[in-house]
Amino acid sequence: MKKVTAVILIVINTLLLTGCWGMREINELGLVMAVGIDKDAGSNDYIVTVQIAKPTVEGTSKVNKVWIGTARGKTIFDAVRALAQISSRRIMWAHNNLIIIGEAVARDGILPVIDFFSHNPEVRMQTFVVVAKGDAKQYLASASGLDEISGLGFREMYRYELLTAKSVQSNMLRITRKYFTEDRQPVIAGIDFEQEVIKAGAESAKHEIKTIVLGGAAVFKGAKMIGWLSPDETRGLAWIRNETATTLVTVPAPGDENRSVSVETTKVKAKIETEVNDGVPAITIKLSGDARIVEEDSATDLSIDEFKAVIEKLVEEKIAQMSG
Predict the structure, then answer these.
(1) CA distances from 180 to 113, 183, 306 (A)
(2) What whole-number distance in Å separates Cα of residue 236 and Cα of residue 218?
Protein backbone atom coordinates (compact mmCIF):
# COMPACT_ATOMS: atom_id res chain seq x y z
CA MET A 1 0.00 0.00 0.00
CA LYS A 2 2.86 2.35 0.76
CA LYS A 3 4.30 1.82 -2.73
CA VAL A 4 0.91 2.41 -4.37
CA THR A 5 0.38 5.58 -2.32
CA ALA A 6 3.85 6.87 -3.29
CA VAL A 7 3.16 6.27 -6.99
CA ILE A 8 -0.18 8.08 -6.75
CA LEU A 9 1.42 11.08 -5.01
CA ILE A 10 4.16 11.29 -7.64
CA VAL A 11 1.58 11.26 -10.45
CA ILE A 12 -0.53 13.96 -8.73
CA ASN A 13 2.50 16.20 -8.09
CA THR A 14 3.58 15.80 -11.70
CA LEU A 15 0.19 17.01 -12.91
CA LEU A 16 0.37 20.05 -10.61
CA LEU A 17 3.83 21.14 -11.75
CA THR A 18 3.89 24.49 -13.60
CA GLY A 19 5.55 24.79 -16.95
CA CYS A 20 6.84 27.51 -19.28
CA TRP A 21 4.15 27.25 -21.92
CA GLY A 22 4.35 30.97 -22.82
CA MET A 23 8.14 31.20 -22.52
CA ARG A 24 9.96 33.25 -25.15
CA GLU A 25 13.71 32.93 -25.61
CA ILE A 26 15.69 36.18 -25.68
CA ASN A 27 17.16 35.30 -29.08
CA GLU A 28 13.64 35.19 -30.49
CA LEU A 29 12.77 38.75 -29.45
CA GLY A 30 13.47 42.14 -30.99
CA LEU A 31 13.89 44.54 -28.05
CA VAL A 32 12.64 48.01 -28.97
CA MET A 33 14.91 50.80 -27.63
CA ALA A 34 12.96 53.70 -29.16
CA VAL A 35 10.02 54.22 -31.50
CA GLY A 36 8.99 57.09 -33.79
CA ILE A 37 5.46 57.89 -34.95
CA ASP A 38 5.01 59.87 -38.18
CA LYS A 39 2.15 60.54 -40.58
CA ASP A 40 2.09 60.61 -44.35
CA ALA A 41 0.31 63.79 -45.43
CA GLY A 42 -0.66 62.30 -48.79
CA SER A 43 -2.22 59.00 -47.71
CA ASN A 44 -2.92 59.91 -44.04
CA ASP A 45 -1.20 56.62 -43.10
CA TYR A 46 0.75 56.28 -39.86
CA ILE A 47 4.45 55.47 -40.26
CA VAL A 48 6.01 53.62 -37.31
CA THR A 49 9.79 53.35 -37.03
CA VAL A 50 11.44 51.18 -34.38
CA GLN A 51 15.02 51.11 -33.17
CA ILE A 52 15.89 47.56 -32.11
CA ALA A 53 19.11 46.54 -30.37
CA LYS A 54 21.19 43.97 -32.24
CA PRO A 55 22.47 41.09 -30.09
CA THR A 56 26.26 40.83 -29.94
CA VAL A 57 28.11 37.54 -29.64
CA GLU A 58 30.89 37.61 -27.04
CA GLY A 59 34.25 38.31 -28.62
CA THR A 60 32.79 40.07 -31.67
CA SER A 61 31.88 43.68 -32.40
CA LYS A 62 29.26 45.32 -34.57
CA VAL A 63 29.54 48.58 -36.49
CA ASN A 64 25.78 49.11 -36.23
CA LYS A 65 24.43 48.37 -32.77
CA VAL A 66 20.80 48.79 -33.83
CA TRP A 67 18.41 47.81 -36.58
CA ILE A 68 15.95 50.43 -37.86
CA GLY A 69 12.65 49.10 -39.18
CA THR A 70 9.78 51.10 -40.70
CA ALA A 71 6.22 50.11 -41.59
CA ARG A 72 2.99 51.93 -42.31
CA GLY A 73 -0.71 51.37 -41.68
CA LYS A 74 -4.09 53.07 -41.37
CA THR A 75 -3.68 53.05 -37.56
CA ILE A 76 -0.63 52.84 -35.29
CA PHE A 77 -1.50 49.26 -34.36
CA ASP A 78 -1.89 48.39 -38.04
CA ALA A 79 1.62 49.76 -38.73
CA VAL A 80 3.09 47.92 -35.73
CA ARG A 81 1.63 44.63 -36.96
CA ALA A 82 3.08 45.34 -40.41
CA LEU A 83 6.55 45.35 -38.83
CA ALA A 84 6.22 41.57 -38.61
CA GLN A 85 6.63 41.47 -42.40
CA ILE A 86 10.17 42.85 -42.20
CA SER A 87 11.37 41.79 -38.74
CA SER A 88 12.88 38.35 -38.16
CA ARG A 89 12.03 38.59 -34.46
CA ARG A 90 8.92 39.15 -32.40
CA ILE A 91 8.76 42.87 -31.44
CA MET A 92 8.87 43.40 -27.66
CA TRP A 93 8.13 46.79 -26.06
CA ALA A 94 9.05 46.19 -22.41
CA HIS A 95 12.52 47.78 -22.79
CA ASN A 96 11.42 50.78 -24.84
CA ASN A 97 12.99 54.00 -23.51
CA LEU A 98 11.46 56.63 -25.76
CA ILE A 99 8.44 57.51 -27.88
CA ILE A 100 9.17 60.18 -30.51
CA ILE A 101 6.10 61.90 -31.95
CA GLY A 102 6.62 63.55 -35.32
CA GLU A 103 5.51 67.18 -35.60
CA ALA A 104 2.83 66.34 -38.19
CA VAL A 105 1.28 63.77 -35.84
CA ALA A 106 1.43 66.20 -32.90
CA ARG A 107 -0.37 68.95 -34.82
CA ASP A 108 -2.99 66.50 -36.13
CA GLY A 109 -3.64 65.12 -32.62
CA ILE A 110 -1.89 62.76 -30.17
CA LEU A 111 -4.99 60.87 -29.02
CA PRO A 112 -4.13 57.80 -31.18
CA VAL A 113 -0.62 57.76 -29.63
CA ILE A 114 -2.00 57.95 -26.09
CA ASP A 115 -4.60 55.29 -26.88
CA PHE A 116 -2.20 52.77 -28.42
CA PHE A 117 0.65 53.01 -25.90
CA SER A 118 -1.54 53.29 -22.80
CA HIS A 119 -3.37 50.09 -23.81
CA ASN A 120 -0.22 48.14 -24.68
CA PRO A 121 0.50 45.92 -21.63
CA GLU A 122 4.22 45.73 -22.47
CA VAL A 123 4.79 49.51 -22.47
CA ARG A 124 5.79 51.13 -19.17
CA MET A 125 3.87 54.31 -18.34
CA GLN A 126 7.18 55.88 -17.27
CA THR A 127 8.42 55.72 -20.89
CA PHE A 128 9.70 59.14 -21.97
CA VAL A 129 7.86 61.02 -24.73
CA VAL A 130 9.17 63.83 -26.95
CA VAL A 131 7.91 65.78 -29.97
CA ALA A 132 10.35 66.07 -32.87
CA LYS A 133 10.84 69.10 -35.06
CA GLY A 134 10.16 67.46 -38.39
CA ASP A 135 9.80 63.71 -38.83
CA ALA A 136 10.52 61.33 -35.95
CA LYS A 137 12.19 58.71 -38.17
CA GLN A 138 15.32 60.77 -38.85
CA TYR A 139 16.17 60.99 -35.13
CA LEU A 140 16.29 57.23 -34.58
CA ALA A 141 19.34 56.77 -36.78
CA SER A 142 21.29 59.69 -35.27
CA ALA A 143 23.73 59.99 -32.40
CA SER A 144 22.46 60.82 -28.93
CA GLY A 145 25.00 61.75 -26.28
CA LEU A 146 27.86 59.28 -25.77
CA ASP A 147 25.79 56.13 -26.26
CA GLU A 148 25.95 54.06 -29.44
CA ILE A 149 22.24 53.24 -29.04
CA SER A 150 20.43 56.57 -29.13
CA GLY A 151 17.42 55.15 -27.27
CA LEU A 152 19.65 54.56 -24.25
CA GLY A 153 21.27 57.96 -24.72
CA PHE A 154 17.88 59.66 -24.53
CA ARG A 155 17.17 57.97 -21.23
CA GLU A 156 20.35 59.37 -19.72
CA MET A 157 19.78 62.84 -21.24
CA TYR A 158 16.41 62.96 -19.49
CA ARG A 159 18.05 62.12 -16.17
CA TYR A 160 20.25 65.22 -16.39
CA GLU A 161 17.61 67.51 -17.94
CA LEU A 162 16.81 69.02 -14.53
CA LEU A 163 20.30 70.59 -14.41
CA THR A 164 19.28 73.08 -17.12
CA ALA A 165 15.46 72.96 -16.82
CA LYS A 166 15.31 73.91 -20.51
CA SER A 167 13.09 70.93 -21.27
CA VAL A 168 10.25 69.19 -19.43
CA GLN A 169 9.91 65.76 -17.83
CA SER A 170 7.24 64.26 -20.07
CA ASN A 171 6.31 60.59 -19.94
CA MET A 172 3.22 58.57 -20.82
CA LEU A 173 1.81 58.79 -17.29
CA ARG A 174 2.11 62.59 -17.02
CA ILE A 175 0.79 63.20 -20.51
CA THR A 176 -2.21 60.92 -20.00
CA ARG A 177 -3.06 62.58 -16.69
CA LYS A 178 -2.83 66.11 -18.10
CA TYR A 179 -4.77 65.21 -21.22
CA PHE A 180 -7.72 64.08 -19.12
CA THR A 181 -7.46 67.05 -16.73
CA GLU A 182 -9.49 70.15 -17.52
CA ASP A 183 -7.26 72.74 -15.79
CA ARG A 184 -3.98 71.69 -17.45
CA GLN A 185 -2.93 70.97 -21.02
CA PRO A 186 -0.06 68.67 -22.08
CA VAL A 187 3.40 70.17 -22.53
CA ILE A 188 5.82 67.69 -24.09
CA ALA A 189 9.61 67.94 -24.39
CA GLY A 190 10.99 68.87 -27.80
CA ILE A 191 14.03 67.61 -29.71
CA ASP A 192 15.91 69.13 -32.61
CA PHE A 193 19.16 68.72 -34.52
CA GLU A 194 22.29 70.75 -33.89
CA GLN A 195 24.53 70.74 -36.95
CA GLU A 196 28.30 71.10 -36.86
CA VAL A 197 30.58 71.31 -39.90
CA ILE A 198 33.85 69.39 -39.47
CA LYS A 199 36.75 70.25 -41.78
CA ALA A 200 39.47 67.69 -42.39
CA GLY A 201 42.18 69.38 -44.45
CA ALA A 202 40.85 70.00 -47.92
CA GLU A 203 37.61 71.87 -48.47
CA SER A 204 36.12 68.82 -50.15
CA ALA A 205 36.75 66.72 -47.04
CA LYS A 206 34.41 68.69 -44.78
CA HIS A 207 31.27 66.98 -43.56
CA GLU A 208 28.36 67.71 -41.25
CA ILE A 209 27.64 65.99 -37.97
CA LYS A 210 24.08 66.03 -36.65
CA THR A 211 23.62 65.80 -32.89
CA ILE A 212 20.25 65.46 -31.21
CA VAL A 213 19.53 68.22 -28.72
CA LEU A 214 16.88 67.99 -26.00
CA GLY A 215 15.39 71.43 -25.34
CA GLY A 216 12.23 73.48 -25.61
CA ALA A 217 8.73 72.05 -25.53
CA ALA A 218 5.63 71.49 -27.63
CA VAL A 219 2.47 73.13 -26.26
CA PHE A 220 -0.92 71.48 -26.72
CA LYS A 221 -4.53 72.53 -26.54
CA GLY A 222 -6.39 69.35 -25.91
CA ALA A 223 -4.88 66.70 -28.16
CA LYS A 224 -3.46 69.07 -30.80
CA MET A 225 -0.12 70.85 -30.75
CA ILE A 226 -0.44 74.61 -31.15
CA GLY A 227 3.17 75.80 -30.97
CA TRP A 228 6.69 75.62 -29.55
CA LEU A 229 8.31 77.06 -26.43
CA SER A 230 11.96 78.05 -26.66
CA PRO A 231 14.40 76.52 -24.13
CA ASP A 232 14.35 79.72 -22.04
CA GLU A 233 10.54 79.90 -22.15
CA THR A 234 10.41 76.26 -21.09
CA ARG A 235 12.62 77.04 -18.10
CA GLY A 236 10.29 79.89 -17.17
CA LEU A 237 7.35 77.48 -17.30
CA ALA A 238 9.25 75.06 -15.04
CA TRP A 239 9.71 77.84 -12.47
CA ILE A 240 6.03 78.77 -12.58
CA ARG A 241 4.95 75.14 -12.17
CA ASN A 242 7.44 74.54 -9.33
CA GLU A 243 9.00 71.74 -11.36
CA THR A 244 12.63 72.75 -10.80
CA ALA A 245 14.41 73.95 -7.68
CA THR A 246 17.82 74.81 -9.12
CA THR A 247 19.16 76.05 -12.45
CA LEU A 248 21.73 78.40 -13.96
CA VAL A 249 21.14 81.97 -15.14
CA THR A 250 23.83 83.88 -17.07
CA VAL A 251 23.72 87.69 -17.28
CA PRO A 252 26.04 90.39 -18.74
CA ALA A 253 28.82 91.55 -16.44
CA PRO A 254 28.30 95.04 -14.96
CA GLY A 255 30.04 97.60 -17.17
CA ASP A 256 31.07 95.07 -19.82
CA GLU A 257 28.32 93.43 -21.86
CA ASN A 258 30.88 91.29 -23.72
CA ARG A 259 31.58 89.45 -20.46
CA SER A 260 29.21 87.30 -18.42
CA VAL A 261 28.39 86.28 -14.87
CA SER A 262 26.83 82.89 -14.07
CA VAL A 263 24.41 82.64 -11.16
CA GLU A 264 23.01 79.38 -9.79
CA THR A 265 19.49 79.70 -8.41
CA THR A 266 18.27 77.34 -5.68
CA LYS A 267 15.09 76.77 -3.67
CA VAL A 268 12.99 78.52 -6.33
CA LYS A 269 9.29 78.64 -5.47
CA ALA A 270 6.37 80.18 -7.34
CA LYS A 271 3.28 81.73 -5.84
CA ILE A 272 0.35 82.49 -8.16
CA GLU A 273 -2.28 85.05 -7.18
CA THR A 274 -5.44 85.76 -9.18
CA GLU A 275 -7.92 88.63 -8.98
CA VAL A 276 -10.61 90.32 -11.06
CA ASN A 277 -10.39 94.07 -11.71
CA ASP A 278 -13.46 95.65 -13.33
CA GLY A 279 -14.43 92.29 -14.77
CA VAL A 280 -10.95 91.62 -16.16
CA PRO A 281 -9.06 88.66 -14.65
CA ALA A 282 -5.43 89.28 -13.66
CA ILE A 283 -2.71 86.84 -12.65
CA THR A 284 0.34 87.75 -10.59
CA ILE A 285 3.25 85.31 -10.39
CA LYS A 286 5.82 85.80 -7.65
CA LEU A 287 9.08 83.84 -7.75
CA SER A 288 11.39 83.63 -4.77
CA GLY A 289 14.58 81.74 -4.06
CA ASP A 290 18.26 81.88 -3.26
CA ALA A 291 21.17 82.40 -5.62
CA ARG A 292 24.94 82.31 -5.61
CA ILE A 293 27.49 83.63 -8.08
CA VAL A 294 29.41 80.65 -9.44
CA GLU A 295 31.53 82.33 -12.13
CA GLU A 296 32.60 85.89 -12.93
CA ASP A 297 34.15 86.48 -16.32
CA SER A 298 35.69 89.91 -15.62
CA ALA A 299 37.13 92.15 -12.94
CA THR A 300 35.07 95.02 -11.50
CA ASP A 301 35.62 98.20 -9.51
CA LEU A 302 32.36 97.73 -7.62
CA SER A 303 32.36 96.67 -4.00
CA ILE A 304 31.10 93.17 -3.30
CA ASP A 305 27.78 94.49 -1.99
CA GLU A 306 27.32 96.81 -4.99
CA PHE A 307 28.24 93.98 -7.35
CA LYS A 308 25.72 91.60 -5.74
CA ALA A 309 22.98 94.24 -5.93
CA VAL A 310 23.56 94.81 -9.65
CA ILE A 311 23.67 91.08 -10.43
CA GLU A 312 20.52 90.46 -8.38
CA LYS A 313 18.63 93.04 -10.42
CA LEU A 314 19.90 91.62 -13.73
CA VAL A 315 18.90 88.09 -12.70
CA GLU A 316 15.44 89.27 -11.64
CA GLU A 317 14.94 90.99 -15.01
CA LYS A 318 16.02 87.92 -16.96
CA ILE A 319 13.82 85.58 -14.91
CA ALA A 320 10.86 87.92 -15.40
CA GLN A 321 11.54 87.93 -19.14
CA MET A 322 11.71 84.12 -19.35
CA SER A 323 8.66 83.61 -17.13
CA GLY A 324 6.52 86.23 -18.86
Answers:
(1) 14, 9, 50
(2) 14
